[in-house]
């Protein structure tokens, strides 16, 4: 194996450019910070106006807008190319959740889940494919353990994450001939704003914690470090994988 392939993540990512969606959220902001530490320029995309200050503090770029608008996702690609002349990595970390029984969810809410969690991710990848071909880039989609297990109260959300994992696998096959790798990360219970309500319930929290072999919930950095590995040359022969980051929850 050539010595150039034995460098660590920092060596292989320095000078490259990434787009991270959901960059103002708990997972997305940790991923953006992690990639920045590895020497990447990160374009953070989020509908939350805090993304401007957040990315500014990292020395990155920000695009504030609704990812479901194709013009906004294209603006993120344009920002990357204008700033650095290249696009190497896409991390689709944007996501929303609607807690309700499946039979009670409205058509509008279900359509919104699909659009944010699946369609917008696919659209961004499709729009960026030409740029990723040029750099033999990498994509990581943030899925969920609920993609392959029935979790009452978030069934529609789980369905969208299942679609995202299948999309990741299918694109890994189709884009592999261009040297583009596509993987997914499936976090378990992670302490973010999205989970604050359920993890704030003592009985629920204790029951879930008891099932985690590592005896703690994840934080954003736990996910970010795995994403950094997957987009680096250390994972150069890894594609089509859905990697659980759950402290062992899925095996109990």
List keywords for this structure.
252 residues; 7-stranded parallel sheet; alpha/beta
What's the CATH topology name? Answer: Rossmann fold
Distance between the termini: 38 Å
CATH architecture: 3-Layer(aba) Sandwich
Which structural class do you get from the secondary structure elements?
alpha/beta
Tally of contiguous helical segments:
9
- Could you state the order of secondary-structure elements as H and E? HEHEHEHEHEHEHHHE
pLDDT averaged over residues: 94
Low-confidence stretches: none
Estimate the helix proportion, in percent: 40-55%
- The multimeric state of the shown protein is single chain
CATH hierarchy class name: Alpha Beta
Largest sheet: 7 strands, parallel
Tally of extended strands?
Answer: 7
Strand content: 5-15%
Protein architecture, described:
This is Oxidoreductase. Belongs to the short-chain dehydrogenases/reductases (SDR) family. GO terms for molecular function: oxidoreductase activity, acting on the CH-OH group of donors, NAD or NADP as acceptor. One of its GO terms (biological process) is fatty acid elongation. It holds the Pfam family adh_short_C2. The chain is α/β, with parallel strands linked by helices and 252 residues long. It has a single domain (3-243), classed as NAD(P)-binding Rossmann-like Domain (Rossmann fold, 3-Layer(aba) Sandwich). The chain is 46% helix and 14% strand. The protein has nine helices and seven strands. The protein has helices at 9-13, 26-37, 50-58, 70-84, 107-135, 155-175, 196-199, 202-210, 220-231; strands spanning 17-21, 41-46, 61-64, 89-92, 138-142, 181-187, 242-245. It has a seven-stranded parallel β-sheet with strand order 3-2-1-4-5-6-7, sandwiched between helices. Helix 5 links the parallel strand 4 (89-92) and strand 5. Helix 4 packs parallel to helix 5 (107-135). It is globular.
